[in-house]
Amino acid sequence: MLPLLLEHDYLRETVALTGSRGRPRKMLRVNPGKHVVVGVKIGPARVSAVITDMAAGVLARAEEPIGDSTLETALSAAASLTRRLLSEVPEAADRASGVGVGVSGHVEPGTGVCLYSSLLDWDQVDVAGPLRAATGLPVVVNNDVNTLVVAERWFGRGRGVDTFAVVTVGPGIGCGLLIGGTLFSGATGLAGEFGHLPLDPAGPLCSCGHRGCLESLAGDRAVLRHVRDAGVTCTTIDEAVGLARSPRGWSRTAARAAFAEAGAALGRGLAVLCNLLNPQLIIIAGEGAAAHDLFGPAMSRALQAHAFSAAARDCSLHVDPVPHGQWARGAACLVIRDAVDGALS
User: Fold this and answer.
1) Got the DSSP string for 148-212?
2) Which of 10, 16, 172, 183 lies 20 to 30 Å from 142, alpha-carbon distance?
3) CB-side neighbour CA atoms (13 Å) of 191
4) Torsion of CA 223, 101, 112, 184, to 10 degrees
C-alpha cells in the first residue's frame, strides 16, 4: 500500500530521523498539493462549497442562498460555486480531482442518484450526471451526514474511534454511522435514516408522510409547534431559542418546555441507537446543536432511562455544532478518499 501511495505522489518521504538505533527511519507526509477537490453541501435554503487540498485543508469557501430547492436551482448554484472556487485558487482548474456533494436523504451508492429526500422534496433525481456535465469533473454524491462522519473520522472527535454515530439536529434529524472503522451505508445507502424512526403511531405528521417519526417529535418544526400550542407567537427556530433564553416570562417557560419535549424524544431515539449498535461515541451536530443547553438535559435523562444495561454508559456524547461549511469539507473528503482508493487499486 505505502509503495503505491509514494509512487503516485500521494505520500512523500521527509528528512530521516536521527538519534535512533538501527536502520534510519523516515517520516511520511501527505502531499497536499497533489490535487485540489471541491466539496458541496446542498441544503433547502443555501448551497455551500469549499475547495481543499488533499489534506482537506480549506483553500477557499463560498456560499449562495437559493430561493427554492428544486434540482435545477440547487445544481445551478453548485456548478456556479465550483467554477468560482476553481478560478480563485491558482492553477486549481488543472489540478482538480473532482467534486463531492452532500445532500439530505437516500442516496444510491455509486450512482449519484438521490432516490428520495423529504427535506429537499426530491424523488429519483440524478445529482451526479448534470453536475458532471456542467463542471467537466468527476462527481461523487452521498448523504450529507455521511460526509460529516468522514470528516469527524479524519479530523474530529472520531479519530481513533472505530464505532460511532453522528446525529444531526435542526430542520431534520439525520444520522451517519461508522462501524468497525468503515462508513456504513446499508444495502442500498438507506442506513442512518434516524429521523424516521416510528416512535409514536398517533403522533404528528412527518415530512415523509408518516406519523410520529422522531423528526416530527424532535426537529425544529416540533419545537415551533409546541411553542405555538402554548399560545406563544413564534415563527422561526431562532425566535424560539431567543424566547427560551430570555430572562423571565410565560413565553420563556413555554419555549423551554418545547425544547425539553423535543430533547426527551431525541433521547428516546438515541436509546434505540445505543441498544442496537452499542457505539463508543455519539456526536450531536447540525444547526440545532447550538441549542444543546436547552434540549440536552432532557435528552440525556431520556437516554439514561431507556437505554438497556450499560448501553448509555458505554457511549460518550459530544456536541459539535458544525458550521455549514464543515459539511462541504466533509463532502470534499469523499473525493479524497476515492482518489486514494483509486491509487491503491
Assistant:
1) HHHHHHHHSTTTT-SSEEEEE-SSS-EEEEEETTEEE--SSS-TT-GGG-B--TTSPBPTTS-BS
2) 10
3) 19
4) -70
Question: Helix or strand or coil: residue 117?
Answer: strand
Map grid coordinates 459539511 to a residue. 327
Helix (H) or strand (E) holding 260: helix 250-277
- The full length of the chain comes to 345
- Residue 262 burial (CB count, 10 A): 30
How much is the average pLDDT of 172-194?
93
What's the CA angle centered on 32, arms 31 and 34, to 5 degrees? 75
CB-count exposure of residue 44 (10 Å: 0-12, 13-18, 19+): middle
- The DSSP secondary structure of 23-70, one letter per residue, reads S-EEEEEE-TTS-EEEEEEE-SSEEEEEEE-TT--EEEEEEEE-S---
pLDDT tens digits, one per residue of 27-41: 545 566 678 999 999
Q: How far is CA 72 from CA 6, 46, 68, 95, 235, in A?
A: 41, 13, 9, 27, 28
Note the pLDDT tens digit of each residue in 191-216. Answer: 999 999 999 999 999 988 999 999 99
In the block, residue with C-alpha cell 490535487:
35
Query: Count of alpha carbons within 13 Å of 136, Cβ hemisphere only?
Result: 6
User: Beta 122-126 vs 316-320: how paired, if at all?
Assistant: unpaired
Burial class (CB in 10 A: 0-12, 13-18, 19+), 235: exposed
Residues 6+ apart with CB under 8 A from 345: none
* Cell 470528516 -> residue: 151
Q: Do strands 36-42 and 96-103 pair parallel, antiparallel, or not at all (unpaired)? A: parallel
Cross-strand bridge partners of residue 101: 40, 141
Could you give the percent of the chain with pLDDT greater than 70? 88
The Cα-based distances of 148 to 77, 151, 159, 167 in angstroms read 21, 5, 13, 10
